[in-house]
Amino acid sequence: MKIAYYLSSGIKQGLSRFKLAVYLWLIILGFSVVAIAPVSSIIKNNLGNFYPGRPPLLPFELHLVEVFMANQNIFQPYFSLVLTIILVFGLLTVFLNAGVFGRMTDREKKINFRDFLNDGCRYFWQFFLTVLISLPFFVLLLGLYRLLGTPVKAWTAEATTEWPFVIGSNLRMIIFILLWTIFKMLFDLVRIIIVSESKKLLPSLGSALRFLKNHFFKLWWLDLIIGFGFVIVSAIFLMAGRFLSTSHLAGVLVIIILSQAYLLFRLFTRLVFIGVETSYYSENRGAQ
Amino acid sequence: MKEKNLKKVFSISGLVFFLIITVRLFSMDNERPVKYDLKVELLPENQALQAQETIVWTNQSHDYVQDIQFHLYWNAFKNELSTVAKESRMEKVFKRYRVKKDEWGWIKITSLTTAEGQDLMPAASFMSPDEPANPDDQTVLRVVLPRPVAPGQSIALNLEFQAKVPRNGLRAGYYKDGFFISQWFPKPGVYEEGRGWNCHQYHLNSEFFADFADFRVKITVPEKFVVGACGEEVEKTVDSNTGKATYTYVQQNIHDFAWTASPRFIKIERLFKADEEVTAEEYRQVADLLDLTPEEIKLPDVRMVLLIEKQHQSQIERHLKALKAALKYYGLWFGPYPYRTITMVDPPFRTGSGGMEYPTLFTAGTSVLLDKKVLSPEGVIIHEFGHNYWYGMVANNEFEEAWLDEGINTYSTGKVSAAAYGPGKLSMRLNGLPLTWFIRMPAIYDWQLDRLLSPSVAKLDPIVTPSWKFNNSASYSLNVYQRASTGLYTLERLLGEKTMARIMRTFQMSYRFQHPKTEDFIKVANEISGKNLNWFFEQFFFSSQDFDYGIASVDTGEKPTKFQGIFDDLAIKNFNKPKPEPGKKKTKIYETTITLRRYGEAIIGPEEKLKLRVEFENGQVETREWDGQGRWARFTFEKPCRVKTAVLDPDSIWLVDSNLSNNSYSSCGAKNKILSASSSLLWLMQNFLLTVSGLW
Question: Best mutation site among B431, B613, B648, B692 for testing chain A: the one with the most A CBs within 10 Å?
């Protein structure tokens, strides 16, 4: 199996279409700014002229909690706002996914926003149906998770020390993540087929399932390698964040830049997933 | 009496009071009202106890006592109609207080006779003393005596009882072959002269109250079990025919008796050697603080017994270090630990018995994976040991005034933890893994967290409220622990560390082996401080009001030099006005107006003042005072520069202030911190949207 080939092909596709990650990043940034604006404004109003004292009486984080506690009354309407934003964003996501898959599977490497929008419009309906049809599969995933988690749960229920609980609960979390990657891989493939072969949803789903019948472990293995790489980079990012200080403006700016770079990395990883899956599918679809 | 004289009288009487108390010798031989002789056998296969009990109760009041009332706590776990079950349902702690068929717990007296053999079972009936009445509750049993017990006379009663250990009875329980047995035997309430028996039914949000007693307890268990109990183990016999071991424990002057048995314990015994743990310099410093001599605060050696689960054996030293710190600082500050042993139990797995106190024994609680900077096992150990002082020896009524032990002990725990360890990180876990391994968390002191949490319930209930009458469990716990502790930290800052240390020690030493009430604490605080602090307790302990003073606004700007209008004395003014020296720049004058507000209902005492410290751009500092009685006050300053910072309560005395963030003003603000906080929130939201969208 040409692991390196598919991975490098996916990374190349991701890099050549990095603009897509930037588009998504900008859109998410816009939604997030709207979502946190009320909270941010509360912080500014309450602590904009705050003087922590020398030495400070409390760590700044506790003042933040204090401000949130003093303004609890706004949180109920605020959560309604966030929920609305999530729903609108969820709908938009269908459109964005259509744009991303459209551009990622296109031979044309040059990315522009107009083509991205065109693809978003073109495949929106099929992708929306994909979301609907994925729901019973998600229920299946939950059922499978419950089934696989049962022996682990039984083991931890009978434990006489805490270790089986620690191991068991983390094992169940890993089981869920693994099942989720399978679910994701299946519907990525469905979307790739919809876009690359201009098929309707159900034939695409059939093709994807048939393809996975022969290539399940190979493709899953590739996905897991990318996922593992992502986890490693995320851990490094989290560790790096522990050593950066926020007491100086320069430190704060470095943290902001790093945080946003991490988000771009997350989006880039997504492009690599699609790139690897597209590349694997196009190389092997004849050999089903 | 004039105020000055009043203060003088207070200080002199305080000193006398303090001296009397500190020289008072406490004897363990004082007559206790109750004597217990208990024989109990654990039947692990049925999770049951089979026991015999002899109680000798002495009437120390001047009343003729007609009856005796017993707590039968385990009946709270007998069915869904008990008060605990009903309150749990109301609190939504449990949808229904329902457990598996064989997991209910109960206690049943099978025989109750006088020493002469008279059967008292027909004279026994369940009662429900607290409102709302619950006739289905069986946690209090009243027995009418054949004849009243005269003042000074005693009555001996012989009981036989069976009990089924509840699977998880709030503080007692079992899991497989691990048992923690507490509140397990029929225990008389406290007889109060002129008021009768104080014997409340078991409530969801309450702990306990009992009289001081001498215990002799024989515990029989299968030989493989390791046993720990209150008091001192004086004998162990093994019956090779039955494969059972019997342990005898003895302890005087305690008011409860708990024990534990599990084959998975490791038992460690060490000696707390006071001379090795406390240096001469530390004795001298504390003696200075308390106005005592180092000899008067000398600590005794104490035998430490640790029962720890095998899975936690790597933490043995960590446990013992915390216990030593507790023995040291509680002993130095509040008085020597008077018993010869202290038993620390890492509770049997899944028995739900962690973090609980009993006289001379307490349960800690830890996890297999720990972050060294999270002081969660240490905090629990120090707190639960500390209950030997607050609840154990100074034995307040936890049903009626829980703050007297929980609040004072939370305050004490914070002080001991800070002295022994400094600030610690908050414990956050996911699937048993400490999140602090991955996420940066600030290190904080206990008092910082206490004061942060306490305002959330300030308007719900007064701290001094009977435990079962709080609005809900959160209000109960946050009021009696965190809010009370924050009140005491405020009192310390108001009176000074030295005065507060003397108050705490005096309260401990004067009410050791007694049942003090809130008014007793206030009395000690007034006498030692030489102040009338009634207002303080009225505002913060007996009322449910928010305390929040703050800076409402700071306006600073150049003072106008030209005014429009008609001025009658204009000519004179112009005549007197000094002419500016040629070449010298005209000095600008800035007018700063600071408005302070009282946002909450609670108010500072009539003799107290709130300080306002203002620093100007030229480094000049001015301090003003406000009596805080009105709703607002305004202060104006004229300076050649603008204001740089303004801080209300710059000495941070009023930790009870629910919002410290509005107590200060800075012309620059905490821009970096705000930027950092906002960007973190933004980043979290971005990640959240990214994750839920499935775009990655």
Answer: B431
Q: Per residue in B83-92, pLDDT tens?
A: 999 999 988 7
Of the listed ranges A144-148, B115-119, B434-438, B518-522, the least confidently predicted one is B434-438
Is B687 an interface residue toward A (CB < 8 Å)?
Answer: yes
Confidence class for position A85, pLDDT limits 50, 70, 90: very high
Nearest to B696 by CA among A160, A262, A116: A262
Q: How many domains does chain A contain in total?
A: 1
Pairing of strands B549-558, B590-598: antiparallel
Rounded-to-5 percentages of helix, strand, coil across chain B: 30, 30, 40
Supply the range of the domain harboring residue A169. 3-287
* pLDDT number for residue B114: 97
Which residues between 512 and 541 in chain B have a beta carbon less than 8 angstroms from any beta carbon of chain A? Answer: none
CA distance B278 to B301: 11
Sign of the CA dihedral A28, A31, A33, A36? negative
Q: Is B579 left (phi over 0), alpha (psi -120 to 50) or beta?
A: beta
Band of residue B572 on the pLDDT scale cut at 50, 70, 90: low
Chain B touched by A218 (CB under 8 Å): no
Inter-chain touch A49–B368, beta carbons under 8 Å: no
Chain A residues close to B439, C-beta within 8 Å: 238, 242
Confidence of residue B93 (pLDDT cuts 50, 70, 90): low
Q: Which of A24, A26, A32 to mutate to test the interface with B (most CBs of B within 10 A)?
A: A32
Q: Which amino acid makes up residue A102?
A: G
Location of structure tokens 């938009």? A92
Tokens at residue B330, please? 């509680």
Task: Please name the residue of chain B whose CA is at the shortest distance from the CA of residue A99.
Answer: B695
Contact status of B686 with chain A (Cβ, < 8 Å)? yes
The radius of gyration of chain B from alpha carbons, rounded to an integer in Å, stands at: 30
A59, A173, A256 member nearest B431 (Cβ): A173
User: Other C-beta atoms within 10 Å of B59: how many?
Assistant: 20
Percent of chain B clearing pLDDT 70 (strictly above)? 92
Whether residue B448 and residue A58 make contact (CB cut-off 8 A), yes or no, is yes
Say what the ipTM of the complex is: 0.94
Contact A252 B675 (CB under 8 A): yes
pLDDT tens-digit series, residues B334-368:
999 999 999 999 999 999 999 999 999 999 999 99
CB B448 to CB A46 under 8 A? no
| Mutation for testing the A interface, residue in B264, B367, B440 having most A CBs under 10 Å | B440
Pairing relationship of beta strands B361-363 and B226-229 according to DSSP bridges: unpaired
Per-residue pLDDT at B383 exceeds 50? yes
Query: For residue B21, is pLDDT > 60?
Result: no
| Short-list B227, B208, B230, B187, CA closest to B53 | B187
Q: How far apart are CA B28 and CA B38, in angstroms?
A: 21
Please indicate whether, in this complex, the C-beta atoms of B661 and A63 are within 8 angstroms of each other.
yes
pLDDT digits (tens, 9 = 90+) for B617-663: 999 999 999 999 999 999 999 999 999 999 999 999 999 999 999 99
Q: Which pLDDT score is estimated for B5? A: 44
- Count CA within 13 A, CB hemisphere, residue B327: 32
Mean pLDDT of chain B: 92
Who among B674, B693, B694 is closest to A48 (CB)?
B674
Q: What is the mean pLDDT of chain A?
A: 93
Check: CB of residue B356 under 8 Å from CB of residue B362. Answer: yes
- Which B residues in the span 344-383 are in contact with A, Cβ-Cβ below 8 Å? 349, 367-369
Domains (ranges, CATH) in chain B?
31-263 (2.60.40.1730), 549-673 (2.60.40)
B689 touches chain A (CB under 8 A): yes
Provide the shortest C-alpha distance from residue B690 to chain A (in Å). 7
